[in-house]
Amino acid sequence: xxxxxxxxxxxxxxxxxxxxxxxxxxxxxxxxxxxxxxxxxxxxxxxxxxxxxxxxxxxxxxxxxxxxxxxxxxxxxxxxxxxxxxxxxxxxxxxxxxxxxxxxxxxxx
Length: 109
Hints:
Helix content: 40-55%
Oligomer: single chain
Number of strands: 4
Number of domains: 1
Radius of gyration: 16 Å
Distance between the termini: 7 Å
């Protein structure tokens, strides 16, 4: 399953279900068993952007600590996987541009 995020001022952002669910959980917009579609209004975007940036910063710190721990143990310091920062960058752009234009973001599966 895929999540598709849409705005009238940007291209669509498509994510696999686990990644889209993670973003919606960060935004406080995911409810288990609820329909997998919704809307983010311009007035909600500053809080959604701040929550996403905080989650990115927390994961960055966690990944940096994991690399330091690996180095201290003489292990490979490369942290596997794609970071939240990499996955969320298109959505951050969508948030900023949509907020500036005062256009909502909608999503669905």
